[in-house]
Amino acid sequence: MMDWLRDNIWVAWLSIAAVLGLAELASLDFTLLMLAAGALTAAGVAAFFPGLLWLQIVVGLITAAAMLAAIRPMIVRKIHHGQELKTGSAHVIGRTGTVVKEIHPDGVGSIRLGGDLWTARPYDEVSTIPPGTRVEVMGVDGATAIVYPIGEPLHHQLDKAEPPKDPNDPPTV
Fold it and tell me: Quick check: 121 and 103 in contact, CB under 8 A?
């Protein structure tokens, strides 16, 4: 048994790496995963240098320490400080849209938010917001967006355009 283990020490290191990897699934702390990476590199060293246990241990420890010091903090920072996942109607708060149907304080109008049409009411409950006005969603009450105007009403380009000129007219200077 000892001869087999001495000749196949890489299997022991691989088993340790597998156990640590499975234990990581329970902890989700990424510490055991880094230790598993150290055991995996020790298994690689053992495959090439089966008689040098001290080298396997040193390489495994250096790898695990480097992973714990360099890789784990980046992974933890990415996971814990990434964008907050907003679900339900909360994902529209802070987005901007355009008023489609005039919004009155005593009734509701509608806005286009991305590709969706939402019912809306004014944030301050005293404003009337005309169609074409850019608004920001300040909150959501049921299926109604609570909005605040952030710009002047947008008018269609043709409203301000000059009438088309006859191509036969001489150019004006």
Answer: yes
Q: pLDDT tens for residues 8-23? A: 899 999 999 999 999 9
Any bridge partners for residue 98, and if so which? 112, 134
Query: Whole-model pTM?
Result: 0.49
CA of 116: how far to CAs of 53, 72, 160, in Å? 65, 41, 28
- Residues 101-119: tens digit of each pLDDT: 998 888 779 999 888 898 8
> How many Cβ atoms from other residues are within 10 Å of residue 8's Cβ?
14
